[in-house]
Specification:
With about 500 residues, this protein is mainly alpha-helical. The protein contains 22 helices and 2 strands. The chain is globular and about 70 Å long. About 55% of the residues are buried.
Length: about 500
């Protein structure tokens, strides 16, 4: 009952006129930032952080959190409409969101993304409200062995993303891991895989550069070839009846939404994990659990619902260790943590006791921001669909310019722009040769997370691999991961044994 009373007090703070205006403004700005390739919540919050010194700390945090929430919603827009991930958290949404848009079902994809984001955000905020302190303590149990086991589990969930052609899938994964290793060695500091000492490779290959190249430039080249003069690339429409029809169809995806929400929230509370691995793991898990996994990548609504529920849930989960332990759960919350310190507050368990108005005002604002972001997103769907009705001769240059901007913004280096164009051509050739693109993209995300965890674990154990099987949580995750990795081999072995028996 005490928690409910504190939450009601928080709503009184969140619904103050100035805070309510900041929630609406923050969600609208975040929606735009999330939809712009290359910006994302990290850049948006960092750029607007100085503006918040004009208002009290509680109002400032509410505004930045609303931007964070809006950006999570907005990332799906360009992923679905243009095939360009607005941020790394929305890459998995591209896999099925873009095919749905090309089939004239952009309205379904956008409604699915908005609804799943709302469900994921709501479930995660409820979990945050009810279980903040114990969940934060549980996250601390996750050391390097557990993090590596979790990353291996993520790899295991998307081994099947390439279909039945396991060799091509593994090749795609290994290529992604190689790209993820480019840059400076995390232990020795020595440069590696910098291809003839090209300075641009020193900072590694930015994930967004690869994602925008493969899903922006590649998609544009593929559309030019496949449409051959078609005036429009989609005939999507939107009406109130269509909205109701989409919502009815989404009722059948509730299990996927719940799975994505819990998985995303759990991954989000782990330090340095964030929403991107959570959304990718949710997508892979949704495919593993689906009765019709072959339709993933071709326009399955579950392929939109799972990552969108997960990335919104993870964004809330990432705030939990930030507030309760002073440990950021994602790059965006690291910037928010800096803001809290600048405002003169001290993150940690005592924050919930000494600054109740701040903490519970923020938590209550997340409920409001979640609803506001949903309403803004749904209201803007007709405008998003109108974009798809533009002639491709107009749309193609716009996509190309957005890709260039998205490739340049993260590092402000023209090297990354040229690299993005090369990745676009390589992605186009891989698609022509029927190599799956998703595993390569996912591997370059998880590789840089898995490598330090693996090396730190080996250092902790003095070179013993057994550390992954002697720690209770790590051993359970490792066993599940190994089972999932070996699962695709079962039908192949069964088929060969059947042939020999004949």
């Amino acid at each position: 009952m005490e928690t409910l009373q504190l939450l009601f007090d928080g709503f009184a703070v969140a619904f103050l006129p100035v805070n309510l205006v900041l929630i609406i403004l923050g969600c609208a700005v975040g929606l735009f930032i999330g939809a712009m390739p290359g910006l994302g919540s990290v850049n948006g919050v960092a750029i607007l952080l100085p503006v918040t010194f004009l208002v009290p700390p509680t109002s400032a945090m509410i505004f930045l959190a609303a931007i964070y929430y809006g950006a999570m919603y907005g990332g799906a827009i360009s992923s679905i409409m243009l095939g360009i991930p607005g941020a790394s958290t929305a890459v998995a949404t591209t896999f099925d969101g873009r095919p749905l848009a090309l089939q004239g079902k952009a309205d379904m994809a956008l409604v699915a993304a908005a609804t799943a984001s709302f469900v994921g955000g709501t479930i995660s905020v409820i979990l945050f409200t009810a279980f903040a302190p114990p969940l934060a303590e549980f996250a601390l149990v996750f050391g390097s062995p557990e993090i590596f086991a979790l990353m291996l589990l993520a790899f295991a969930t998307f081994v099947g993303l390439g279909g039945d052609d396991i060799p091509k899938t593994l090749f795609s994964i290994f290529i992604g891991l190689v790209f993820g290793a480019v840059g400076l060695d995390i232990v020795s500091g020595q440069p590696r895989l910098i291809f003839g000492e090209i300075i641009g490779f020193m900072h590694g290959i930015n994930f967004l550069v690869l994602a925008i190249g493969i899903y922006g430039i590649c998609e544009m080249l593929w559309t030019i070839e496949s449409n051959k003069g078609n005036v429009m690339i989609s005939q999507a429409t939107m009406s109130f009846r269509g909205l109701l029809s989409a919502l009815k169809e989404l009722i059948g995806t509730w299990k996927t939404m719940v799975m994505g929400s819990f998985l995303g929230f759990f991954v989000g509370i782990l330090p340095a994990a964030g929403a991107t691995p959570g959304s990718l793991m949710a997508y892979g898990t949704a495919k593993q659990l689906s009765k019709d996994p072959d339709t993933f990548g071709e326009g399955n609504v579950d392929g939109v619902v799972a990552p969108e529920a997960a990335n919104n849930a993870a964004s809330t989960g990432a705030m939990l260790p930030m507030l309760t332990l002073g440990i950021p759960g994602s790059p965006t919350t690291a910037i928010l943590l800096g803001g809290i310190v600048i405002w003169g507050l001290e993150p940690g368990p005592m924050l919930f006791i000494d600054q109740q108005e701040f903490v519970w005002g923020l938590i209550a604002s997340l409920y409001a921001a979640n609803l506001v972001a949903l309403l803004l997103n749904v209201a803007m769907i007709p405008a998003f669909i109108w974009i798809l009705k533009l002639p491709f001769t107009i749309l193609a240059p716009i996509i190309f310019i957005l890709c260039i901007v998205g490739g340049f913004v993260p590092t402000l280096d023209m090297h990354d722009v040229w690299l993005m164009l090369i990745f676009g051509v390589v992605g186009y050739l891989m698609r022509k040769l029927d190599y799956p693109l998703a595993p390569a993209v996912l591997a370059i995300v998880l590789g840089p997370l898995a490598e330090p965890a693996l090396r730190q674990s080996i250092l902790m154990s003095g070179g013993e691999v057994s550390i992954f099987f002697t720690r209770p949580i790590a051993s359970v995750i490792m066993i599940v991961a190994l089972v999932l990795l070996l699962l695709p081999l079962y039908p192949i072995i069964k088929r060969r044994l059947t042939v020999k028996a004949r």
